[in-house]
Amino acid sequence: MGTNKADSNFRKEFPLLETLVYLNHAATSLLPNSTKFYLYRYLDSITTEAPNYERDKNLIEQARMSLAKFLNCNPSEIAFVENTSSGISKIAQGLRLGTKDKIACLVPDFPSNIYPWLWQEKKGIEVYFIQYDHRNFRLKDIVDKIKPNTKLFALSHVNYVTGFCLPLVEISSMLNKKGIWMFVDMIQSIGAIPVDLKALKVHFMAAGSHKWMMGLPGAGILYISKEVQGFVEPLELGWKSVKHEEDFSKITLDLKEDALVMEPGTMNVVGILALSKGIELINSYGIQNAFEAITSWNASIAKELKRANICVASPYGNEYASGILTFMHDKPRLLYNYLTEQNIKTSLRENMIRISPHFYNDEQDLKNLMDAILRYEKLL
């Protein structure tokens, strides 16, 4: 993957890259300089001026509209939440289900997309798991395991360990034919992979902003399609839950009828603004360009690893590729520690090294990573 002038300019957004090879966006992203300075100005304004509720409200709605355009959905289908877990829990606990309905969870998956659904067992709802093998994925194997009366199918777009990117178009088509709602955890895809919620026919989606969207911890999004908004009850209510939210003297429980009913009170303005600025930066580069840059980088490093006889556990160079590339090693903890000492930030997941570059990682980062791995191999 070659670097061009645009790539170099984007790297300037992250001054830490002068001394650090950062390959850990599947955990937490670096904060762009443009976001930092924007937040500086905002925070300065609230220390030098009187609080301005109307301004903050407008900024939040602008962020909502920007995000809706980015994901191809209606702003009324997006609620701002604290994180992915919060978004999943709001659906899992508020979903209106019949006594015979079932919930299927596609595994392996991150615990945040499992525990909230298991809570439904307290209400007598059967929750069951469907296992898939990313090394030999066949949609038919999933279809054959779906039980009658399954009402919701929960999955993650991208697996947090292997980086396997599920074919949502095919899965969605299959589920829609069966009348099954689809919930998707997209924290490992939005910002790294183009996402069109309408084309994918997603019913529910949640994602935190601190990974590929380059936002801050503590802010995330929850998507509820218009088609299913009447099937979820808000379990947290406040002054913003009702249609007449600014008429405090009117005490009537006339709840909003869109996703915004999931926002019961005062919002995390700073977190939402950081999320919005992260999306703005990705848009300026182009989400398709970002996806191609990320997957190309991963494909290049995968080939280098294989030349060094290192086993790659993730798909690359095909339709299942994502921003995550994981590889095996005889002594993964020691290698991880060595890379950290060499100012190369990765993650250790299930005794494997996980790397997750963003669009601004360049060929020099790739070279530095491989040089460090090969140096370590010589030390063994």
Number of H- or I-type helical stretches: 12
Identify the CATH class of the largest domain: Alpha Beta
Assembly of the depicted chains: single chain
Give the rounded overall mean pLDDT: 96
CATH superfamily of the largest domain: Type I PLP-dependent aspartate aminotransferase-like (Major domain)
CATH topology of the largest domain: Aspartate Aminotransferase, domain 2
General shape? globular
Please state the CA-atom Rg, rounded to the nearest Å.
22 Å
- Second CATH tier, the architecture of the largest domain: 3-Layer(aba) Sandwich
Name the poorly predicted regions: 1-6
In N-to-C order, the SSE pattern is HEHHEHEHEHEHEHEEHHEHEEEH
**Helix fraction by DSSP (H/I, runs of at least 4):** 25-40%
Strand content: 5-15%
What's the main sheet like? 7 strands, mixed
Distance, first to last CA: 30 Å
Instruction: Tell me the number of strands.
Output: 12
Number of domains: 2
Please tell me about this protein's structure:
- With 380 residues, the protein is an alpha/beta fold.
- It folds into two domains: 5-23 and 286-379, Aspartate Aminotransferase, domain 1; 38-283, Aspartate Aminotransferase, domain 2 (3-Layer(aba) Sandwich), CATH 3.40.640.10.
- The protein has twelve helices and twelve strands.
- It has helices at 5-11, 33-48, 53-71, 84-94, 115-118, 139-143, 168-177, 197-200, 269-285, 287-307, 332-341, 363-379, and strands spanning 21-22, 78-81, 102-107, 126-131, 150-156, 181-185, 204-208, 220-224, 325-327, 344-345, 347-349, 352-355.
- It has a seven-stranded mixed sheet with strand order 2-8-7-6-5-3-4, with helices on both faces. Strands 9-12-11 form a three-stranded antiparallel sheet, with helices on one face. A two-stranded parallel ribbon has the order 1-10.
- It is globular, with a radius of gyration of 22 Å.
